[in-house]
Amino acid sequence: MRTSFRDRPIQKKVTSLILVASGVGLLLAALGVLAYDLTTLRPRALRDLTAQAELIRINTAPALAFQDPRAATENLATLRAKREIEAAALYTRDGRLFASYVRSPGEPLPFTGPGEEGYTVSNDRLTLTEPVVDEGQRLGWLMLEYHLSPFWSRLPQYGILAGVVLLALLSVAVLLSRLLKSSIIDPLGRLADASRAVAQSKDRQVRAVKTADDEIGHLTDAFNDMLSTIQAREQALEESTRQLLEALMVARMSPWVWDVDTGTISWGGHEDRVFGSAGKPRDRTLEAFLAVVHPADQADVAEGLHRAASSGQRCDPDFRILDPDGRIRWLTLRGQSADHSAGGSRVVG
Predict the structure, then answer these.
(1) Of 21, 36, 248, 311, which has fewest CB within 10 angstroms of its CB?
(2) Which 3 state secondary structure label does DSSP give 89?
(3) Contact 291/320 with Cβ under 8 angstroms?
């Protein structure tokens, strides 16, 4: 049988919420890293390539000025230290190839001639074209091709970052779970256990343990105060009942109840005191009670009882009872319908 989320124990609710929050946090972190990569990869590559181009232009300008292709080629070869740069070419002012560099020997140069000044991006290639200038005079053109690594090649780095974020989230989740358990779940659990114990055993002396002066602590105080109040009222009721029974015994009175539906009449366990041990009714039926009433008074007693049950009027006949030894005693029956209206199902006195 499946249980809805709202009906689950608080501990399971909190654990589920922490897991969901951690998963959402990890997903947002992954999306953030991806967005950062997509929005900053090209600008970072362009800054790196522009810085390299500046160094190359400064170092190759004399070679162009003095028409020394060997020096220019050696200078371009220093780009091998930058594994992202796939190729470089130096052109003269009239567009003639002056020196070149290709990372993979034997591969053709990806340039057919100097392009327009600036940069272009095609697939995973960033191409930069800048003029080589010396003392305000343009000597030629420098072209560089930068390889933008595919996203999948950067996944291991992001995987490490995601692992670190996940570990941090799990650590926070465990710490948060322990804090919630000690400060909220356990106190509520103790309060619920105390409530179940009271409901099952009816023991009003049970008390919930208060661990903090927060809202749960205040709720615990209210629960314990309620039990103390109920216990005090029950004790007062027991004492009042005891005193009432003692007063009834002194006054030779006894409570009674006639259940009209079942036809039984109860004397609160005081039949011996009211009728005597020998003269009490043989059972709890109305007929057994009327059997001990003097024959001359039976009609009045029965009429008073039925009138009280049907019309709600008070029942107060005086009648005689016959003891087994022939002695006559006078009793008074006082009572009325329990709901104080006609058609009551019980007459009490």
Answers:
(1) 36
(2) strand
(3) no
Reported pTM: 0.44
| Alpha-carbon distances, residue 19 vs 24, 166, 184, 251, 275 (angstroms) | 9, 11, 18, 72, 74
Q: Map residue 102 onto helix, strand or coil.
A: strand
Nearest to 68 by CA among 47, 35, 37, 90: 90
For residue 315, what are the β-bridge partners?
Answer: 335
C-alpha span between 321 and 318 (Å, rounded): 10
DSSP conformation letters of 42-87:
HHHHHHHHHHHHHHHHHHHHHHHHTT-HHHHHHHHHGGGG-TTEEE
Q: C-alpha angle 120/122/123, rounded to 5°?
A: 150
Q: CA–CA separation, 286 vs 261, rounded Å?
A: 11
The residue assigned the tokens 């919630």 is 180
Burial class (CB in 10 A: 0-12, 13-18, 19+), 75: buried
